[in-house]
Amino acid sequence: MQDTNKINNRDAQLLAGIARQNHDDFAEFVSQYMLSIMNFVHRFFSSKSQVEDIAQDVFLKVWQNAKQWKHNEAGSARAWLYRIAYNRCIDLLRQQKPQVDETHNLSTDITPEKILLNDSKHKQLSAAIAALPERQRTALSLCTFQGLSNKDAAKTLAISVDALESLLSRARRQLRKRLTLETENEMNGGKAINE
Predict the structure, then answer these.
(1) Sign of CA dihedral 45, 51, 56, 59
(2) What fold characterizes domain 2-187?
(3) What tens digit of pLDDT does each residue of 100-157 get?
(4) How far apart are CA 163 and CA 123, in angstroms?
(5) pLDDT tens digit sequence for 40-52
(6) Are 58 and 40 in contact (CB under 8 A)?
(7) Which residues fall within 8 angstroms of residue 3, CB to CB, at 6 or more apart?
(8) What pTM value is reported for the model?
(9) φ, ψ dihedrals at 75, nearest 5°
(10) How far apart are CA 177 and CA 132, in angstroms?
(11) Angle between helices 77-95 and 23-42 (to 10 degrees)
């Protein structure tokens, strides 16, 4: 808890510096969160160049709007940052026609998890996560992969903590169901049980 408070305090200090147009604070903030934001955006888009462009857009918005961040209203600086990223991704998805094979999106993560995805169980989990509805997938990503608290994730999605917990519960239930069915299917030699 103390480490989280230190991080939140440092992030707040950095945003205050960014609001004053301090380039060093901005560089530190970008350095601290760029990879996390790219990984988050990558859960929506598969193109590396598009992920990089969106991440740059997110940090440009931070630079331009740091004066508007208020800790009590927006939650932690980290939650505010993810809210900007989430809104940008949703805006771009709305502009596009549905075309994404989402099972492919997660199979090429930019994180050390990529090494683990070579294992078939991790590929199954990635495919199961990709098959979740967008809001459930985002809630799960924010809380599990990005490490946001339920309160900050709820602020990021502009929903109540209860609604976030409901999304997480439904997501976990669907993941368990899907993974159980795939395991049973494997145990039956890839054939349906009633064949």
Answers:
(1) positive
(2) Butyryl-CoA Dehydrogenase, subunit A; domain 3 (1.20.140)
(3) 444 444 444 444 444 444 456 667 777 888 888 989 988 888 888 888 888 888 888 8
(4) 28
(5) 999 888 889 999 9
(6) no
(7) none
(8) 0.61
(9) 80, -160
(10) 12
(11) 50
Q: What residue has token string 């998805």?
A: 93
Q: How confident is the model at residue 94 (pLDDT cuts 50, 70, 90)?
A: confident
Tokens of 187: 């145990």
Contact status, residue 132 vs residue 174, Cβ threshold 8 Å = yes
**Using H for helix, E for strand and C for coil, what is the string for 84-136?**
HHHHHHHHHHHHCCCCCCHHHHHHCCCCCHHHHCCCHHHHHHHHHHHCCCHHH
Residue ranges per structural domain of the chain = 2-187
- Written as six digits, the tokens of 33 are 């969160």
Token pair in block for residue 177: 């169901």
Structural element, H or E, at residue 168? helix 161-187
At 97, the amino acid letter reads K
Alpha carbon 121 to chain centroid, angstroms: 21
For 102, the token pair is 């989402």
